[in-house]
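User: Could you write out the 3D structure of this protein bound to pyridoxal-5'-phosphate? I've included everything you need below.
Assistant: Certainly. Input first, then the structure.
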Amino acid sequence: MSVDDEDSSLIDFYPYRARFKTYERLEPEGRDHQNILDELGTMAHEEDRIAGLGRVSGSIYHGGHDHYAFLTEAFRLFAHSNVLQRDMYPSATKLEAEIVAMTAAMLHGGPEVCGVVTFGGTESLINPMLVYRDRGRAEKGITEPEVIIPVTAHVALEKAGHLLGIKILKAPLTGEWVADVDWMRAHVTRNTVALVGSAANYAHGLIDPIEELAAIALEHDLGLHVDGCLGGFILPWGERLGYEIPRFDFRVPGVTSISADTHKYGYALKGTSVLLYRDSGLRKYQYFNFTDWPGGIYFSPGLSGSRSGGIVAATWAAMVSLGERGYLEVAKGIFETAATIRHGIDAIPELEVIGQPTFLVAFRSPDLNIYHVNDHLIAKGWRLNALQLPAALHFCVTRPNTAPGVPDAFLADLRDAVDYAKHPARAEPKSGALYGLGGTPEGNEILNTLFTAALDAMYEVAPTEARA
Ligand SMILES: Cc1ncc(COP(=O)(O)O)c(C=O)c1O
């Protein structure tokens, strides 16, 4: 496929509308099980083909179908159970407590470290912001809370600020592309309740100077949340394998909470993450109890209410089945593949690797339009992540990318992509179209309108024009 083939980068939200029946209301009669499973199977297999090629950055962290079949079996046993109902399902207490304990031990937490299982990285970032806001109010009388994050910290923290009424201050990066600690120190005020650093951040896969941030947190009695959603389950194994990984976990005094996603490099199914606190004095601010409700006395640990025990069982099963040896083996392939890719990019004069990567390699081009490079890669079946501010791409290496031949094939296509970008077939790259719009009030307005329409479209059973 070439860059100019029309569908090489457009998203079709409704590829099935001509092939399968569209349900706009419940049918009077139910449908045969096998028939339903056949239809779902067709969609699943076609969609899995893309992931199976090993050409996708991030997203599919394990990729082993035996592994997923095993997790699904564990899920099946508890799919219908509700982890809120501990009287009926005491297994949830065993499984969740052990997921938290295993994660805490991996991140060098002592016996006082505690935590919760959440529905994903986003909840693992919103909950600690709630904790630091409410701790600031209860213990220091802070009514206009502020949190300082690096500009590369995950956007879910902006969502947390938006939902919780916290002012988010964004620190620039240093020449090494990590959080500017001096800027963060200079912006601590009486209203600051917490700092955030990433290990590693989504955009560039880099680890902020957590030890330096921790020193500021200790000096001012602030929370320091380390966002290890992406790196929490891979960096510890990189360190064990001898890679240079700066300390970011509970060995650093001053780190008060860490998020680590089991549904990324923990190799569980989508829908779980672990959030750890230095001690239960912090975690208590996350709990929600309500005693005067006609429905009964209610208490819950975090944002979610009822959750399926299946997802908890599958997460526990993933961790216990892999064990340290399993995580180390997968990590070895990932770090080696990332190093091959990094060195290959280093050897391409038109490209520049961002910072000192470990498992995720971000790169840009001082001279070429990197989105033209991406157009060619997309046409060759690669799915990298496009970044902005500055324009760049990243390859977040996962287990499917460690298959023999994948890194070499990628580097060969990347070299061709750089040649293509020198003489692109079209002036405006297809994959960068939206990025060019941001940055001005008018452009941002257009983008917001487009995104609202796109989100609306995701909840349409069929495109509006087809229904009219
Ligand atoms: C560093 C980091 N933090 C948080 C998140 C949010 O995780 P989720 O998509 O599971 O909510 C991500 C997702 O990629 C991430 O990379």
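The longest helix spans residues 309-346.
User: Perfect, thank you.
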